[in-house]
Amino acid sequence: MSSKDSYDAELCRAVLAFAREREAEVIDRPEPLIALPGFSCLGRDFDVVGRIRPQAHRLFPRDPDLNSVVFGIFPAYSSEISGTESVDQASERFGRMLKVSDLNRMPSPYVLVRFSNPKSGAGTIGELPVFVSPDYFVHELRDLEGVEAARLELWNHRNEKWRVRWNGDWRVSDGDQEIRMTGDEIVLWAAAVISER
After folding, report:
1. Chain mean position to CA 143
2. Could you say which of 31, 35, 160, 173 is the most buried, measured as most Cβ atoms within 10 Å of its Cβ?
3. Residue ranges in the chain assigned as alpha helix (H)
4. Cα 86 to Cα 92: distance, rounded to the nearest angstrom
5. Torsion of CA 44, 133, 71, 3, to 10 degrees
């Protein structure tokens, strides 16, 4: 566990004690990145402890032997980790998006998208989805309004998959049902599906 310009001894003790109580799960679970639920610390909003395996982090880039045996742990939010991340996805989330050394950070929700907007030319390349910020997601979602050939797919931390398209109004499908929405409703929907709980 590390911190930068935000050290909090009580929070660090709480995270380390929580991880130690669940040591077998921390070490034995094969997923590159997991969230251990049930964490709390007085005065903090973190609700899980995140754990990243050695193959998905670069905590000690100058010492590969040490890096290969160290598991990273950090206070996190349940909206940030799905537990299904590949090694590359876990590495990207941990290294670029979560800012885990800032113990005062706000949540960085898991927003994995694949989209194409023929009108603006924006979109993901190929078939692989990419992680984006919630703000960028809402921006691209708004840009799809009125573009009937556009497509957008979203995966959230609960491993729910949604398809969104425009056909005179917003159409949102989870594979089982399709819901119609207005422009205001789609923004509220987006906030809800990427939210904490």
Report:
1. 22
2. 35
3. 9-21, 23-28, 64-67, 87-92, 134-143, 183-193
4. 10
5. -50
28 confidence band (pLDDT: 50, 70, 90)? very high
Check whether 60 has a pLDDT greater than 90.
yes
H/E segment holding residue 153: strand 151-155
- Residues 106-128 as b/e (b if ≥16 CB within 10 A, e otherwise) read ebbbbbbbbbbbeeeeebbeeee
**How far is Cα 99 from Cα 133, in angstroms, rounded to an integer?**
13
Residues whose CB is less than 8 angstroms from the CB of residue 117 and which lie 6 or more positions away in sequence, other chains included? 123, 140, 143, 144, 147, 150
pTM comes to: 0.91
* d(C-alpha 39, C-alpha 13), whole Å: 12
